[in-house]
Predict the structure.
Amino acid sequence: MRIAAMAAGAVGSYFGGRLAAAGHDVFFIARRAHLEALRKDGLKLESVHGDLHVPKVNATDNPKDVGVVDIVLFAVKLWDTEIAAELAKPLVGPNTRVITLQNGVDSYERVSGVLGKEQTVPGTAYIAAVLGGPGVMKHTSKFATIRCGRMEGTPDPKLAAFVEAAKAANIDIQPQDDMNRERWQKFIFLSSMAGANCMTREPIGKILGDPDTRAFYRKLMEECLAVGQKAGAKVPSSWVDDRMTFSENAPPGMKASMFHDLEAGNRLELDWLTGKVVALGRELGVPTPASDAVYAAVKLHRMGKQ
């Protein structure tokens, strides 16, 4: 299959690298030093599932050089969504499927508004990964999962073909019949962990190890769950208990990507994570005091230092 990783950050590099190693034509959309490293030395994945080096990769900063592909793995930072979707237009034909693998809860609406509802497929990615330098992706979690499906839950042969190709490349990919529930379930966990990480400046293990910060982390999830349920997502109330158990069994050093960005002085996805919980809570009449506190405490850092 012809596949484009838009863009070749941590998520795009990991899944794109696995697919490239399996023999698919993968095109990595990258910029600056990362692009030059990909062109010169290929892509290196340092992973708990085994390191991987793809010495020759297709890398460019211009989607026009690639043309129409079968699949676009759309994994840009949330503030770049509409701009990146416009830039991705040369990649998208009538039979292309654009799978949104971003952190926010409204990526499908934002991307489909630019690239079309038929072409856009909501997805979620579960992976702890960061760029370890130009051309290097560090995968630090045992999990690396894609979940995807049509928003309306209907079958899609073109998406199904990609699912089978990804499985053959040893990617954990799980089709879903209720992607609205799925994206809210990820959002509840991700936005809450990111908020707790950035508020305390600590990884998940230390947060869970103190009764006050543990309770605060749980409160963030309870607020986001209430907002999601009010918005119509069919997320069970037991989901918070499920994610608390998951967090307890995760590596104690686990951090959300937004915390990695905060530590690096980079721009933050705060307005589309905790900020989105706050905004939707106000719109829907759901109190979000813990989320309000995170947003107020972290917002002065959201544009980064660079």
About this structure: The beta strands are 2-6, 25-29, 43-47, 52-54, 58-60, 71-74, 97-100, 120-133, 136-148, 172-175. The chain is about 45% helix and 20% strand. The CA atoms of residues 13 and 65 lie 19 Å apart. The chain has a mean pLDDT of 96.
